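Sanity check

After download, print the first record. It should look like this:
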Amino acid sequence: MMQWEKLLNSGRFDPAKKKNVQLDAYRSEFEIDYDRIIFSAPFRNLQDKTQVFPLPEHDFVHTRLTHSLEVSSVGRSLGKSVGEYLLDKYPTLSQIGIQSSDIGAIVAAASLTHDIGNPPYGHAGEEAISDFFKHHEYGYIWQSHVKINEWADLCNFEGNAQGFRMLVSQNNGLKLSYATLAAFTKYPRPSQVFEKDKKRRSHKKFGFFVDQVNDYTHLANVLGLIKSNTDCWLRHPLAFLVEAADDICYSIIDLEDGCTLGLVSFQEICGLLAEILGEKFKPEKLDKYKTQTQKLAILRAMTIGKLVDEAVVAFCQKEEEMLTGDFDKALTDIIPSAKALEKISLLSVEKIYRSKPVLEKEAAGFQVLEGLLEVFSKALNHKFYQTELFSGRDKSILRLLPDDFPLEGWGEKVNAYPLLRALIDFISGMTDKYALALYRKVKGIALPGA
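Expected structure tokens:
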């Protein structure tokens, strides 16, 4: 059984950190996590990464940045409420200096980073990277140069695992606290699992690539996380709150964006949210607000508040089962509003996620990311493997890679997996606009300055 005293360890994932470092007098370690994330370049880049819709000229819709900020806000509320419950149930937590605000800060910081590993063009970007290695000539060509589990990583790009990689990278990782990193990791397993349990929510996706297994093992050992089977661990309990914050926000806010763009009617939204609000839904009170935007904002706030309350109750009921691993479901699947959220999900798929603007954005994402991967992958293959084909064009292409890209220092044998991981780091870290601009340049569609 996991222990909260260990799970809330404020130590940092920073092997170079010296002992007896003076603590910040004004911020807890978990508040420092939050601030580091806010000021980081990967987080800032989320402002130009698609959430669901391409950005229209007039009506504001959410980007990955605004979505992440909102998820973090909801996460803080969930964490602080749960924190009050945990401090009352486990008095030793107060004795070691834990406050409810600390738990709120952990969930807020982890929620802030939950999409930090997502590539350009949303989930279509994830699929485009995976498909390149599965199907493209200059993606599939690498299979013979990597191990089986490394190939599984390349053929199944996962934003959650990419996020973990970014957060713990020895070069530019944010050196967050152990507790925040574990709360971030909703899927504590590698890509290739021989004992995958479909009934466990934490096995649905994967949370770290094969070259980060040792990093997560170290994290798990520090926090006392329990293994469920080979290379799979039980979730940190606060990861359930991070997941719930995300589920609550995208369910309600994607619906709001859909209404803003005219894909879902205001009447449909009222009917769906009324099922969640119950007696709190007072349509006559909406009449005092003049605009539909104001009415949507009120309904959204009330609905999110109700869902937060339900999720906190569900967490407190299942907390002991989380510590033993007997509970492994999404909190939003067991709350009273679960059926209403399922209806929202079905409508969102039909009218929002399959709408023309979204499908056009996804099609563009496939084209752009496949094109970038093809050009750079081909040049790298020619430089290190099919050297007789290495051309002046390839040389020019490779000069566009970042200065810290590992082109040198390999010796006689080039390790293809870290080489390709570095390429994916470069491309998945791009913003939507930068990816499109670079694609046009490397394909000769647009010249620099044109």
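If your output differs, re-run the checksum step. Summary of this record's structure: Residues 240-356 form a domain with the putative deoxyguanosinetriphosphate triphosphohydrolase fold fold (CATH 1.10.3410.10).
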